[in-house]
Amino acid sequence: MKPFSPDRVIFEPRSLDYPLGRKIQDYFEGTSTEIIKVPIKKISSIIPGSTEGQRYASGKKTLVVTVKKSLKFDVCKPSADFEFSLVAGCPASCEYCYLYTTQSSKPYLRTYVNLDEIFDSIKKHIFRSGDRLTTFEVASAGDLLAIEHITGSLARTIEFFGTLDKARLRVVTKFNNVDSLLGLKHNGRTRFRVSINSRYVIENFEHNTASLDERIEAASKLAAAGYPIGFIVAPIMIYDRWKEDYLELFEKLRSRLDAVKSTETVTFELIQHRFTPAAKKVILERFPNTRLDMDESKRTLKWGKFGRYKYIYPRKDAVEIREYLTSLIGEKFPDARIEYFT
Q: Where do the coiled-coil regions begin and end (predicted)?
């Protein structure tokens, strides 16, 4: 897909004290992208738009260059021990995005430039973990690959983890611009997981993302370059002919990956669709014609780790989803490992 190009890039003044901030400024100098320098607290007020939909669309075309202030990492179960952020947000417009609950007022992309400080914090977390292997998720707040051609942050992070014996990096993406990462010294310590879904879900709800074919091709390139790879099937949805569509997905995935010889076990992570009341409100404002099924009467409540409740499929439906997808994976990828279902 075509690389992301923002309409405007906003620099928090302090970001230009860092080499990466200056590199990003140089990248946009002389281009048609508007360059703005304002304090972080004024950013929301200068995003164009008089309605929620207009501000959302403008935010998706805005890149904010800033400094990551909090270097304390949250626990990130079940996918990793900890999570840290190099970006927040992404240029995609997935209608179901779980970040609408926490980032609804900030639809713009943020990239953090104080990489060395973030790396120092990673080392401290590893030290406190003792002799055990510590895993870090870097894509839970945004998709780094979407702006990697601008920042190069993911490449630096991959090579940083390549030097660490007791840590592993985990990356997930819906984008496909992986070519700049194929020759890195990753030493097998970064696992890429490509987000995949049925054709119905991608075409109806995952706007401005790489196509399924592009994602599978990216996974093939990464595996050929020696990266451990996996796939996140999320969010899994129940709808008319959902079983036929997910069968088609795994048949296509199997046929495209047959030629790839991965030295590591391929992994799968299975996540059913869920939504919060706050997210539903934002989704209906931004996508008034959405086809997302958010009928609370068809769901059951589950409390999250931050004291918020979400609507998930009832146990009977969840069991059916888990058993069906587990059987498909077992048939098409008998040597694969399912890491979790949630």
A: none
Identify the sign of the CA torsion 164, 143, 311, 56.
positive
Q: Which parts of 197-256 are beta strand (E)?
A: 206-207, 229-236
∠ CA 202-99-86, nearest 5°, is 100
Question: 106: buried, middle or exposed (CB in 10 Å: 19+, 13-18, 0-12)?
Answer: middle
Q: Span 148-169, mean pLDDT?
A: 98
- What residue spans define the domains of the chain? 8-341
Contact (CB, 8 A) for 82 and 46: no
Helix (H, G, I), strand (E, B) or coil at 76: strand
Residue 138 structure tokens: 């870097």
Are 294 and 283 in contact by the 8 Å Cβ rule? The answer is yes
CB neighbour list of residue 1: distance below 8 Å, 6 or more residues apart = 175, 176, 177, 209, 210, 211, 214
Q: Is the pLDDT at 260 greater than 70, yes or no?
A: no
Q: What is the DSSP letter of 72?
A: P
Exposure pattern of 27-63 as b/e (b: 16+ CB <10 Å)? Answer: ebeeeebeeeeeebeebeeebeeeeeeebbbbbbbbb
What percentage of the chain reaches a pLDDT higher than 70?
98
Question: Is the pLDDT reported for residue 135 higher than 80?
Answer: yes
